[in-house]
Design brief:
- The structure holds 2 protein chains of 2 kinds.
- Chain A is built from no helices and 11 strands.
- Chain A has strands spanning 4-7, 10-14, 19-25, 32-37, 43-49, 52-56, 59-64, 69-74, 83-90, 100-102, 106-111.
- Chain A is globular and about 40 Å long.
- Chain B is mainly beta.
- Chain B has strands spanning 5-7, 10-13, 19-24, 31-37, 43-50, 65-69, 75-79, 88-95, 102-103, 107-111.
- The relative contact order of chain B is 0.33.
- Classes of the chains: A mainly beta, B mainly beta.
- The interface between A and B is medium-sized, with 23 and 25 residues.
Chain lengths: 112, 112
């Protein structure tokens, strides 16, 4: 079973700061997911990436398959970015997309 | 188009009663997933349906839990003889295989 570790568990920032959230996993995979969970509980898929880097607005996700590590960056953070950010990988590694193992999440709070 | 919908949004039940939770996936999505998020805990995989293949039930916590997917579309998660530890938010997601998952709003289950 893939083990997923996220850091930090809690992150507080001032508006405008550059944010980095890290995710490490134990079993090689072909793709990794970053999810965002808002205070109301709704979950949104931010990225699914298998190599290199993806960018969407102020969000950037990178992955290093060899090092089994991914980072999620938020540039020019804003209070509306406050949420829980969750990393997820295939449970058994490889291409088993269906069954995901999730990190515990990083609680991000951005103050104005 | 419509996203993933779940019903009910909230369910309060008494210990020992059976409950049924419903998920309507995005039309055309062949993969459907059920997850659970207990209070203060991370997301936990329950079951995965892919097309006409046998579902991956390896995440179901006990034989009180079962799920079915009729006609490759709507899915029902049934919990028999509910226990207080079953209280959680139950999330459904759907996708095309290997593509990012789209999550529903969840059903908050409270077992008194």
């Amino acid at each position: 079973k893939n083990e997923v570790e996220q850091s930090p568990q809690n992150l507080t920032a001032q508006e405008g700061e550059f944010i980095t959230i890290n995710c490490s996993y134990s079993v090689g995979i072909s793709a990794l997911h970053w999810l965002q969970q808002h205070p109301g509980g709704g979950i949104v898929s931010l990225f699914m990436l298998s190599s290199g880097k993806k960018k969407h607005g102020r969000l950037i996700a990178t992955i290093n398959i060899q090092e089994k590590h991914s980072s999620l960056h938020i540039t020019a953070s804003h209070p509306r970015d406050s949420a829980v950010y969750i990393c997820a990988v295939p449970n058994a590694g490889g291409t088993s997309y269906g069954k995901l193992t999730f990190g515990q999440g990083t609680i991000l709070t951005v103050h104005p | 188009g419509a996203g993933v919908s779940q019903s009910p949004s909230n369910k309060v039940t008494e210990k020992g009663k059976d409950v049924e939770l419903r998920c309507d996936p995005i039309s055309g999505h062949t993969a459907l997933y059920w997850y659970r998020q207990s209070l203060g805990q991370g997301l936990e995989f329950l079951i995965y349906f892919q097309g006409n293949s046998a579902p991956d039930k390896s995440g179901l916590p006990s034989d009180r839990f079962s799920a079915e997917r009729t006609g490759g579309s709507v899915s029902t998660l049934t919990i028999q003889r509910t226990q207080q530890e079953d209280s959680a938010v139950y999330l459904c997601a759907s996708s095309f295989p290997g593509i990012e998952q789209f999550f529903g709003p969840g059903t908050r289950l409270t077992v008194l």
